[in-house]
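Usage

Read records sequentially. Each one opens with the input sequence:
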Amino acid sequence: MRDVMAAAREIAAEGLEGFTLTAVARKVGVSPPALYRYYDGKKGLIQALYRDLTEELMREVREAVERQDEDDIAAQLYASTKAVLDWSVANREGFNLVFGATYPMIAGSGERIPRLISEELGGMYGRLFGRLWRQGVLTYPADEEIAPELRDQLKTYRDAITPDLPVGVVYLMITCWRQIYGVLTMAVNKHLDFAIDDIEPLFNDMFGGLIRLLGLEPPSQAR
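and closes with the structure output:
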């Protein structure tokens, strides 16, 4: 089925409006009924594509983490975040499908799809933040210090992704992610490419600030 997923990626990169089982089948060289045996129409194929991209990203993230010292959480955070950056830049269409402009259409294709990347990537970060929390490293706001309307949303996210963490720790996670996502988007869409043609120094500077926010010393790459 790798040929099917490769064809699906190519067609989805041009927009989901023309994304059909017939188009994918034609590109692979099989009849549409052959794909209907495996996928529940366009919706089922979109869901399969999203899962395939998410699995590929998370495989690269996990492998990056596993190459680090298991006791060095700062290095694991850096490696995992850099893996997300590298994957996003190398797979711009995939980024748009998983995180970007095409995501809203994909999110509407299945009940679990909107939560899949949050459960996978958010869960991975949640486990690392959980270790820091249990070590007493983190300084985070008390519940009453977070605006009620934000606190309620963070609780919903926490309960779905990392139910054992204090809401203040989840606030730190979201604070970090919104900065990471900004750099990812700049890198993928080349917003400042006329001046910043190498995103890595900016990424390292951003990451160094975030890791200090967590009370850790940045790994050598981010100093």
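Summary fields computed downstream for this record:
- The mean pLDDT is 89.
- Residues 20 and 216 are 48 Å apart (CA to CA).
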